[in-house]
Amino acid sequence: MRSALAVFLVVALAAGCGSSAARITAKQLPTLVLQPGDLSAFERFDEGAQVNLDRVPGPRYDTARFGREGGWKARYRRAGTTATPGPLVVESRADVFGSSSDARDDLAAYRDQFAHAVAAQLLRAPHLGDDAVAMTQLQPGTPGVRYYSIAWRIANATGSVTANGFAGRITFAQAIALARAAERHMARAAS
Q1: According to the model, what pLDDT value does residue 19 have?
Q2: With respect to CATH, is domain 23-190 assigned 3.40.309.10?
């Protein structure tokens, strides 16, 4: 009787662990990025599966990295001048991997990519997902263009938001608000 009870408990615990583990599927990718309703006054000018032209040089260049199952992106813009406050261009990305460990490796690759980007400064990442990393860059000019990039991981997926606007007109807090909107989509998919 004790053996049967022990086997039952092991099976029940294993089944419970499996059912509570969040898993995001590649089919959910279109829902993981910022949606038009998240950005009033912006127009979406590019959306769809990530393709070779979307690859960024560095540790995340290989589309098959870490068991990646697919990626999606959405890009938005709005009209503005050097006096326009806030972001003018926003890019939202999501990638799905075979496991949480693979997604952890991808977030580490984001960290490496951010640390080695030209003229980049790592920032204290906001609390997003299971872990996050953030950076800023300033493209020189009169005025310069400020970029903020934030990446995070939830379960077996990574997401990122990059927002740019004119220096002194865009803030890290504005980029964080956009990242939180995208994070909510990913969190819903994982639940």
Answers
A1: 32
A2: no
